């Protein structure tokens, strides 16, 4: 205390010591509240924009798709490969059907006043998910929604307003019609103006560090669509307990979402000749190093990936870059890092921080971008099989132990023919594509024949028993 007195000019005055101690305690308490309970700062509707700006440091980085999704110049005339002979969905709702036994599923029913034929109903249902925690639901529903043009839609159709609730850091995103100009169905407008709460056709909330603890306002009418967007795993999402019967649509990486929003999509365009790589290329040529991993989150994870990587490193060379390893390749030099791994390595650890259904992030895309074989840990084997090209990746749960996986990787390292088998998928013309999330939001808003939909308990839908699996193997 003598040091503090000298530092702040205190002498022996007791009240100054007490005042200083009290001030330090208040600062510590406020810091704890800000870092541990950020929802308290965002929950009420009385939160003012100026107040919110003071705490912008609490916000997490948004999914890249929201800011970069509409930058392609050649999307207007795109047509994707759809197989209309084999329907994508098996769901069949009877007209006026207004309840379901499983509360995890959204309530869906066709409006009695909507005159819809059986064939049209089938066409509409192809746009929607067909079961909970899917067992065999092709993710090509993304294409179904991208290619769908509602009957009666024209270039003069009324504009649907999409209001993104209270996310000021999206101010750099083009508002108005500009945001949707590359969409096939593009008569939509984006706004951040809070006045739109009462008039917007859709209101989008994000549950990645931005969702208030309870609805900030009541929907203006039964026709206003409330959409929850989530790009974090259920283990890292904030509670939605107080949002019962509030959200109409879900927009997440899980395939059973109304609008499935993957971190990336692999497919091909039918009307554009595929760019097929040289089938004789040797992808192993010149690569002398084995496994690379770039990771900065070392301990705030539940998947057990650090332990697995260290154990794997006992049986094959594993080079770890970032805060969790001994090597460095800064994020500011992302392109150089990609080229370095492409030149030197053969495998990449695409390990997720949580093991949850369908939770497949950009980590796999990073491996594909560098033309490496991704070694995946996270979602179930079935989940990866539905969205990634066959024989283009290696799932750790196909092996009894890290030692067995290491032995297999050493085998591939020594055999170029076996290694190159993992790149044959590139000769099909498939490539990494943009899922155009917001284009599909606009399309569904214009589809007047969609069934009425809402989630009785969105928290139970998002976090049912068994949706995540900690560090255990999936059954």
Compose a concise summary of this entry.
Helices cover 26% and strands 12% of the residues. With 475 residues, the chain is α/β, with parallel strands linked by helices.
Protein model, in words:
It is a single chain. The chain has 475 residues and is of the alpha/beta class. It has a 5-stranded parallel sheet with strand order 3-2-4-5-6. Strands 9-8-10-11-12 form a 5-stranded parallel sheet. The longest helix has 23 residues, at 14-36. The model is unreliable at 1-11, 34-80 and 83-101 (pLDDT under 50). α8 (305-312) links the parallel β8 (291-294) and β9. It has helices at residues 2-8, 14-36, 39-42, 49-53, 65-68, 118-125, 141-147, 305-312, 334-344, 362-369, 381-387, 402-414, 416-420, 437-446, 458-462; strands at 107-109, 160-164, 188-191, 202-206, 225-230, 249-252, 265-267, 291-294, 318-321, 347-351, 373-377, 394-395, 431-433, 452-454. The radius of gyration is 25 Å and the shape is globular. The chain is built from 15 helices and 14 strands.
